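Q: My labmate handed me this sequence with no annotations at all. I'd like to see what the chain might look like in three dimensions before we decide whether it's worth expressing. Could you predict it?
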Amino acid sequence: MELQTTIWFVVGASFALYFAIAIWSKAGSASEFYVAGKGIHPIANGMATAADWMSAASFISMAGLIAFMGYGGSAYLMGWTGGYVLLALLLAPYLRKFGKFTVPDFIGDRFYSPAARIVAVISLLVISLTYIVGQMTGVAVAFSRFLELDLFWGMIVGMTVVFSYTVLGGMKGITYTQIAQYVVLIFAYTVPAIFISLQLTGWFFPQIGLGATLSDGSGTYMLTKLNELVVDLGFAQYTTNASFGTLNIFLLTMALMIGTAGLPHVIVRFFTVPRVKDARRSAGWALIFIAILYTTAPAVGAMAMYNLVKTVHTGQEIKENQTLKYESRPQWMKNWESTGLLKFNDKNGDGKIQFYNDKNKAFTPTAEGYGWKGNELTVNNDIMVLANPEIAKLPNWVIALVAAGGIAAALSTAAGLLLVISSSISHDLLKGIIAKNISEKNELLAGRIAMSFAILLAGYLGLNPPGFAAQTVALAFGLAASSLFPVLMMGIFYKKMNKQGAIAGMLAGLLITILYIFIYKGFFFIPGTNLLPDTPQGWIFGISPQGFGTIGALINVAVAMLVAKITPEPSKEIQELVERVRIPR
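A: Here is what I predict for the chain of 585 residues:
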């Protein structure tokens, strides 16, 4: 079976499975729609949580960032996995014990304030919409290549699929769909990695292959050879942190950690299990399921970069006359060129592809000596994982499996985010404040209408994203870190935090972080509206927009504590409520 037919078959079969699950598990009540009736088994919930959390950023974009950033990309690995541990230990059990549907539910009741609920809803919408932009970017990338559609129509197909089964099944349908999606995406990620590790190093486990010697008989370690190749092309050593300074590594890692712990679409998953004990167990299972992919990602990134360089520069060493002729480029390059995510510009007119770091002024004399007049190959970071099996010339069924996995990763998280947006508007805002006597039927209708508008906005922004999928998602984590995480932590562990402090802290953290992001990424991510260049030289005090969430969180806490000190304490009943939630019984 030829490649495109295989892709259509595998992707089509996965779509049929998702729709069948959604129809089988259709939500019939508000409880099933929002929290799956609180009846999901911890292992199943752990698998669904892993799929919900491991988005397009994890599957499609993270290894691509690592491929081009090298060791500096480990900030994404450390931040996201460390954040999940924070969430599992410090938030999930207590929020489940509180017993509400959503994060704004908890904030509204804990701080005895409709205003606090509204600010939480606003924060949640900003976070979720930013996050879903990254997912829709991943959807467009995967669909445009593997379904042979341009980015616009790839986005339309992706929006239609995720909207259909989300509206139909609610949290109940999403949970069982995400279990299937996790199985698809984890096989799609690990199987090609195993093949490529065997090809390059002879080791079955990519985690070991990453630190092993090449199987070409040279006895050279793969990372040593990769370092040599990228340095000879003007890039920094792959195994050193040249992408970020120490400050930004710390701020980005911390923002991703506390942002993960404040993500509403992940937190809500712990409301779907029957008991507090089950929330802890499902968190542990989810961490195991997540670790399978996250320990594989560094190997995938390194091997993808190695294969890319060896494809373009065909000799054992980097030499001017051993670069790939454009007319002889492999089929995978032609496939990705048609999407516009891989581009070639023959700057010196020699008909060959030169791929190197033309921004490195120290390398310019060497490049000029070769007759090179600039880098001629532009590769979008987000294609590296999806293109990896094609670069390595793996069987068609493996390439099709990766296509299905990338689409599953993007769809699973997009569905969870749509549900959070829906519940925040219909349950937290409409039923909780505006129309408290609304019927359950009308509440569900309002939720589905809210989803419709959210998916349209997300689709538009996904076609005009502020960065690669993982970078866009990092912005959402920064917003969660600066707005929701501090107030959740103080709500659980500081019984004297009052509504005035919580509201002031959330607003201060959220607004200053949004402003900082807009200064560099453009207001509402509209191209050309940024006030300062998004470069290390343009960043204030050298702090990247992705890492500013840590600063926003500190501002949130400082403002909240200051305001709480000069305003009345919460009532005795509220303080006793906090004690009951925090102390296990």
